[in-house]
Each structure stands twice: as structure tokens, then as C-alpha cells.
Amino acid sequence: MDKPLIMTMGDPTGVGPELLVKALLEGELENRARPLQVVGDVGVLRRAARVFAAEVRAEPETGGLQRLLIGGRSLVVRPVSSLPADSLVYGRPDATAGRAMAAYVEAAAQACLTGEAAGMVTCPINKAAINAAGIRFPGHTELLAERCGVEKVVMMLAGTRLRVCLVTTHLAYRDVPGVLSGAEILATIRIVDHAFREQFGLKTPRLAVAALNPHAGEEGLFGDEEERLILPAIVQARDRGIDVRGPFPSDTLFHFAARGDYDAVICMYHDQGLIPLKLLHFDDAVNVTLGLPIVRTSVDHGTAYDIAGTGTASTASLAAAIGMAEQMSNNL
Questions:
Q1: Record-annotated residues binding a divalent metal cation (predicted)?
Q2: N or C, where is the chain less crowded by C-beta within 10 Å?
Q3: Per the annotation, does 194 bind a ligand?
């Protein structure tokens, strides 16, 4: 049998559990390129099924797995927690739920590292809850990097028309120029190039680098980061055989990237890349961690507490994340 993809359930009080059940009921988990398994909590998934008035029956499988028959469809689960599902309140995760969220991620990562699983797809977690549980990581990316023994990873947000990769991620805009360095830009370019060759099957990825300042600095009139930091990193990357170009002004670059001139855009800061990405792929974007020794994709949205338990959350991003994880794992 092909190695499975592991899907983590995410926050038990968020939309993750019901997204998995909804995707199952809508047939989005069937006829996939690889078998799928969920790391999570059987009781919480039962509660999620009730949102859709779906009957659930559990059957034991070998290796401690459980097969949940939900609305006539089948979902294989690796039980990692046994939370009091009926007493959980949507949008109010406690430390116990926080520990469970982290445990799902660690179990999936371990299965990938040992070669038992082909890759992992994560549903959203609550960062405050996992920190309240004494697990001091800002989120999925940092936790996975530590567990995989990797110092630097790159966050990529991707859709069918546009892929953006970030040099810096979650920090105040005023802090970006001080954090940027030629070494970080070069490292980002190299990680993206390597990942696209290895995990996306491209022999020579076409990369573009966005400038930091308007008009790419206008020869220093609007800033010197382009000449001082970005261009030297591009030159060094090209000397290493990487097909990378720029720095290009952001107000024109994304037009050409979206029409297919480039395979990915290297962006200097969060909103520089995510504004055009979400304009094109608000519902179906995928969050991908590049630079790990394993395949990891994720939905590109949060726990959505405002609609958790209503069954109205879209499964488009989850379906896209599964599809991308299949693509990446099949190239390895």
C-alpha cells in the first residue's frame, strides 16, 4: 500500500474537526492519490459529525487505528487524545486542548520522519492555547522546524496562479528593514529553489524577487536595500546556478507572476506577498513549509471561532492542501 498522508485535526474547539468531516461527507477525501489518515480525537470527530446530522460508527483497525464510518463514508483515525468532547466550548480552548493540538502535530511529524507517512496536512491550531500548555512555540512552523532539526524554513503561500515565499513573516512593518539581510535573502532563495526542484519536480525553477521599496528604490531615492542587500543576494544565487531575477517593483511584478512568467515570487515581508495571493486565492490558498525534510502543507486560514460548530466553513483550502501534499510527496 502507498504510504498515507497524515491530516492533523487542529484545534478541537475550532473548525478543523468539522472541516475533515465535511470534506469526507462531500467526497473530497475519496479517490485520492494516497490513503489518508487523521491524527486526532475520535470523540471530537463524533461531535463534528453531529453538526451535519451524520451517524457515526467506529471499528477498530490494526496498529491502534480506528475506522470511523460517517454518513456511509470511511475515515481512518489515529487517536492521540481522549478529550471530553461534549464539554468543549467552541472558541475556548484550554491548556488540555493546547497539549492535544501539539501532540497531533508531533505524532504526524514523527510518522513522516520515520518514513511511515508520505507527508502531513495540518488544520489550524491556537497558538495561545499551545503556549498555555507549556509548549513554547509560536505555531506549526517553528514546532516542526525544531522537531525536524532544521534552523531555517520558508513559508510559502500558494495557489494555482501564484506562489509567494516570505523572507520575513510575522513582525511589524517598521521592523522589516532592520531584520532583512543579504544572507537571509540568499538563504530563502536557495531553500525555495531546492524545494521546487525536489518536491515540485521542476528542473530549473523560475524565481523572481520583489523589491522592498517603491520603484525598487529608484536608484537609492526611496531606499538603498535593493542595491545593498537584495541585488547582491540575487547575484550570489545566480552564481550558484539558480534562475532568479530582480529585484522588481511589487506594483508590476505580481501581474507577470500571476500570468505564469515565474514559478514563485520571493517577497520581503508578509503583506507584500499575501495581499496579491489572497486576492487571487482567498478560498483555496495553501500554506507550505519549505526547507523541512518532510512534506508539510496546511490550510491557509485560522480556527474561525466565529463560525466553528456551524458547518459553514469552506473545505476548499483543505482540499487544495491535500492535493499539493500529494503532488509534493509523489515527486520525492
A1: 170, 215, 270
A2: N
A3: no
